[in-house]
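Subject: C-type lectin domain-containing protein

B.,
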Amino acid sequence: YSRIMFDDNVDVQSATMCYKIYQLILVNVGWANILPIAKSEPFINYDKTSSGCETPFESVNNGCYYFSAVQMDFFEATAYCESLAHESIYEITLAMMDYDRDEDQALLDVVTVKDKAFWVGGKSDDGILWNWIDSRDINLQAPLWDPREPNEVDNKCMIVQPDSFEEIRFNRSYLYDHMCSNTLDFICKIGNIKCPADFIRIGNYCYLQSWTIGLPDLTWIEAREYCQSLDVLDGYYADLSMLGLQDQDDYNLINILVDNYFGFPWIGAFREEGCSYKWIDDRELSLESSYWFYNQPTCGSDDHVGLYHNSFNDRTSLNDVTGNTSLSFICQMYSNL
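Prediction pasted inline below.
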């Protein structure tokens, strides 16, 4: 830490001791500030296979959350949470919801008991449409919102706090829009394992878009071989991307993957025989799926599947195409379990 008027520092190698000193200094916050500096040991090094959550994180249902002891604006809080994962294999971000109904409710209950407002990881660029910081859309009709929210176009960041009805308190907490520059407590959450280099996270999975890193167009078989050759994390492998997986929001996914891109990337589906299509994990790709473009598949010589983005109505659909055509492609990281 550094005292405001002085230039002395303490190098603390133990994460536990660092946290104890951190809490001690906060008692005297009028004369001291603290800045965690990454050394050989990360401030948080959480092992998800161990029982419970490592201090200063608290267990809430199935998740591990840190309820801050200092106040920051939304962007400072966002950066602070991410800094906790400096040397961790896991992402740490402002808490996001909408993954697990029971865990979301358990978090709301904790906020109600703490009886204060916290920043969480939702934001808006225009004050109208909202996204979680992992790019997922936020349903404005979701019951997580206070019934009157969001209601201020200038409030573009999200908080969670106990209900603010003046007439009666229902002992519940909700989501609210809030001015990003205000300083508040915040909630960090230990999330998914970090994505490898060149991959991006969308929801619960990691994806590589060939066109974003300058890879050449490849045939479907070449694209799959490239994905499979990637050296990803221990316990994981890479292959062409698929839809219809557990905990995967297909509608948001296919639109985020090709946002502002008008190419035709390969994904992991193909025609087996006749007019029978399959994903590379052997699941059926139904001909009745609403994700097919309106006149697809053709069931002719077009024997592999890509994502077609229709710029006229800004929609993305499945389209079959001849497998020896050279196209861009999307790889996805999967667990070996």
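The radius of gyration is 23 Å.

T.
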